[in-house]
Amino acid sequence: MIDNQESLHAWRQRAAAKPQGRTVLDLEADSLHRHREKLCLIQYADEDGVCIIDPLAIEDMGDFTRWLQETDVWMHGADYDMSLFQGAYGVLPHMILDTQIAARLLGFRAFGLAALVEHFYGIVLSKKNQKADWGKRPIPVEMQEYASGDVKYMLEMADKLTARLKELGRHDWFLESCACNLQHGRERFETVMEDPWRIRGSGKLNRRGLAALRALWTWRDSEAAKMDRPAFMVCSNDDLLRWSETLQEFRVVEPRSRMHAQRANRLRKTIERFQLMDEHDYPRIPKRVRHEQDPHFEMHMAHWTAKRDAIAEQLDIEPALIASRIQLEAVSNHEDAGLAALMAWQRALLTR
After folding, report:
1. Facing residues of 75 across strands?
2. 196 Cβ contact list (under 8 Å, min separation 6)
3. pLDDT category, 295, cuts 50, 70, 90?
4. More exposed terminus of the chain, fewer Cβ within 10 Å: N or C?
5. Number of C-alpha atoms within 13 angstroms, CB side, residue 93?
């Protein structure tokens, strides 16, 4: 356990001596237990073994963040971890080599970390502490052991995945996909930080509906802050969207019957304030570039979908990896621009 400045500095010297791509990271947060999630634990592994860094106990994490920005690390399913890194330190690794991406490009349909460890080693990872409160201190030994298990097998597993990718000629696909995923992680975080209330599904709302959503999201955030619990414990995103649609249509929203009376009263007051808003203060709908649809769009879509699916079957990978439906729609509507937006390996497959 690395829990002071001196041991972190010693760890930095160890980690910096490792070649690029020969270290593994995993993260634990308290998102199921706190209003504002925080990065609570960093699991690190290399060929010498595993150690755990406690960022809550170390005042200056500069040794870690400087190393991070210079390093190519292995992680698994790193999308959420990227948001934790950026929220905590404002930085990302130089490159994240993602074992989940590698597994999917090799045709694995069960590509969770536990599934891969079981596939390669016949070992069933415990899920006992999956929802534990990682912000509590001291950390029990069994939770430390659970955290170590998430990185214990990954470096050797990464070697197995890499060897197979190279054997199949897909290693370049993997590297490009990891670089693209890292860039998307940066863009997602910037979008969320700008307007956190624009949750998934808000694109179907008009300006009045967006104003309602913003007001309701702010109410929920305040309620969650009062009890220092995650926002979903107040109400779900589906609730917010449903209520916003109701208000968008000038209908009445009634708090759920099991909602605490004081909270329900604050919700009603929030809705009353929303009802008094001037339309000029409603949020703007993000501008979308709209192109005139190709008159042969459906025919082109059928052609590209059939071609993608045939290639995916031949390669034994998920069709969406070669091109998602949205990407195929872009190609079908404006072929040159749609193909140019794909990764090089995707474009090469679709145009071969």
Report:
1. 98
2. 217
3. confident
4. C
5. 24
DSSP structural state of residue 2: B
Q: Which two tokens stand for residue 218?
A: 């702010």
Q: What is the pLDDT at residue 12?
A: 97
Q: Which amino acid is at 332?
A: S
- Give the Å distances, CA to CA, from 55 to 10, 134, 142: 15, 11, 19
Token pair 């934790």: residue = 84
Q: Where are the alpha helices (DSSP H) in the chain?
A: 5-16, 62-69, 79-89, 99-105, 113-121, 141-152, 154-167, 171-194, 207-227, 237-248, 261-275, 297-315, 319-322, 325-333, 335-340, 344-350
Report the alpha-carbon distance of residue 33 to residue 133 in Å, rounded: 6
CA-based R_g, the chain, Å: 24
| Cα 199 from chain centroid (whole Å) | 14
Q: From CA 240, how far away is CA 108, in angstroms rounded?
A: 36
Q: Are 53 and 89 in contact (CB under 8 A)?
A: no
Q: What is the mean pLDDT of residues 116-135?
A: 90
Tokens of 337: 């621009």
Q: What pTM value is reported for the model?
A: 0.88
Q: Is 156 exposed, middle or buried (0-12, 13-18, 19+ CB in 10 A)?
A: middle
**Cα(168)–Cα(174) distance, integer angstroms:** 11
- The pLDDT mean for the chain works out to 94
Give the list of residues 6+ apart from residue 204 with CB closer than 8 angstroms, or none: 245
Identify the DSSP state of 41: E
Range with lowest mean pLDDT among 190-199, 252-261, 265-274: 190-199
**Strand partners for 95:** 72
